[in-house]
Amino acid sequence: MKKHLFVISALIIVLSLVTACAGQPVAEEPTEQPAAAFKAGLLAPGPVNDGGWNQTAYEALKRMETDLGAEIGYVEVEMSPAAFEKAFRDFADQGYQFILGHGNEFTDAAVAVAPDYPNTFFFLSSSRFYDPNVPNVIGLNSDSSQPCYAFGYIAAKMGTGAGLIGGMEIPPISESFTGFINGAHAVNPDFPVQVTYLGNWTDTAAAKEASISYIDGGANFLLGNADFAGNGVYQAMLEKNVYGFGMFGDNTEKAPDQILANYILDYGAGLVGLAAEVKAGTFKATSNIEFGLADEDVIYIVYNENAATPVPQELRDEVAALYSKISSGEIDTLAPVE
Q1: Residue 39: helix, strand or coil by DSSP?
Q2: Which residue from 250, 244, 289 is spatially nearest to 266, judged by alpha carbons?
Q3: Contact yes or no for 141/291 (Cβ under 8 A)
Q4: Which fold has domain 39-143+267-291?
Q5: In which residue ranges of the chain is pLDDT below 70?
């Protein structure tokens, strides 16, 4: 009898333990969550295939995709403050950590949106903006006055006059033209340089018309800084057979005999480095970021060896000497020549 009671008691204990265990959750091995994708976005003020300013930014974005494995997106945004702000918010709401507004016209919208997205960095092209109260908005300035100073120097050495055609009269454009004028006047204070602003970025016909009016007035050098509209400047060079320069990339094919040199802005080289820091969580700004001729992988000039009248080697050597003086600050490309 005692033996039977012992067996029954043992069974009750075992069943009690099984029941107790059945009510407890089973501990699982922790699983590693996949890292959030790094996302980079672009607000472009014009077509990203314009062969100039906007294409430069788009190509930089594509390099982030290739070099950093970034998910990328872009919008050719309508030119209005409300559209700017909406585009910034749309990207930020989708978890984009790096957003580039490609022009200083995006500043007010970025400053308005940024406080709501402290984990997103809003970068502004052609801007010297920095405010420690809005630490995730950072201006990126590519000092186009420096290579344009060299272009003005070449024009005054080889030509009779120059016409400059800009899109809008905003600092990045006017500063590039100031650099050109100062470079030309360093050679000849009386070298004639005329300037037109179109008031838009798309009117190629107006850019061509302004260019031809300068040529008819005696200019034989042209420079356009007008995004897509700048194609009208290249058309005038080609049709009237005058000299000129390419802006922001290799535009030689648009006027193969006439373009003597191209200003290359390899924005990607600068932006990919910044994006890598944002991705790694190490980026921290203490000022705006300024690119110049000292950043040899970002801003440089390439001569057209196949131009009808290539820039002579002696003149190229003079320009190379200017580089050092500009990079060191000995020459201020924005200061009028005395």
Answers
A1: strand
A2: 250
A3: yes
A4: Rossmann fold (3.40.50)
A5: 1-35
